[in-house]
Design goal:
Length: about 375
Amino acid sequence: MTTKLAETPLLPPGFTVPASRWTDPATRLRELLDGEPFVFAPGVYDPHGAELVMYHRFPAVYFSGYSFAIGHLGTTDMDLYSGPEIADGARRTVSSLRKFQLTMATGDPEKGVPPTHLEIPPVVADMDGGYGNLFNVQRIAELYVNAGVAGAHIEDQVLPKRCGHIAGKALISADEMVGKLRMARAVADDLGREDFVVIARTDAVSAVDAPETTRGLDLAIERALRYLDSGAPDLVWCEFPNSDRGPTERFADQVRRRFPDARFAFNWSSSFKWFNDPDPISFAELGELGYKFLFITLAAQHAMGYAFSKLLQGLQEEQERAYVELQKREWAKDDDIPTKSHHLFTGVPYHQVMGNVLGASRLGKFEQELEEKAV
């Protein structure tokens, strides 16, 4: 399908961006959920990771709370940051993607690098347990909606909550959770963002305490039905404790017996050692079961931790030669690593071109250009 392009005042005359730039991200997410077998969103914790997801043309971005805790506080996922903190992180991420679209659409005219036209992926953000009661949800939902986030998920844990794969979880009542979901929905509607996607998460499978007498998967199914019956959430997410297929399949089957069109979110979790699973469930299989929004919460964190650790190990053993080898891999002709030129990736050519267009003369090209081999 040909991408429709349009001009914007934030680019020089003659340069264009995809016209979808002005589509509500929530509307775009709903279009994807309706039209694709599933939507996969890699998990990130900062604008840089989100820009890489966008560059490699994934349809959506997942802004992970656990990743945010690691990436911004250097700690774990136990409600140790506040709602406005993560909301600001989500806001900066959405803003960065809009700017990144402009920088890629500029290319580098001086060096003959052509424009790259990238769609802006909708961002789905973690709202944890809402950081308080339903009026705390009201505040954070407003911050998310006004930031341009496409959707968010709320979970039914007692606060302070904890990662779904850390022991000791307890649940609030289903009624209280429904109130939080309805508040998030009401905020979006009041702000004219009726397409904002609300996801209800239940941690009932592995919670150690809940108002109900039942536990485990049966309670998770019951909770999902209660949440869907409220009409507030667009998807439900059951946090599973391991990679077993059985509970994943049974949850979808049981919920869809009452709500045939129900759609689910699924955390293809980094906590599970998928490499030890003899038959890991695939994204395509999940899509067939009704799991339409899929994500790996800690994808960026694990990838960064692995790659940077390998570089640090190399620097200890080989000193500068390890970094030379990294650059060789970055600049290999048969690979597309957009960050190999940090100036191009971060938009130096865009700032120079627009600086000239708008009259900021000090942002013009260098008096003496360095040869590429020396940069």
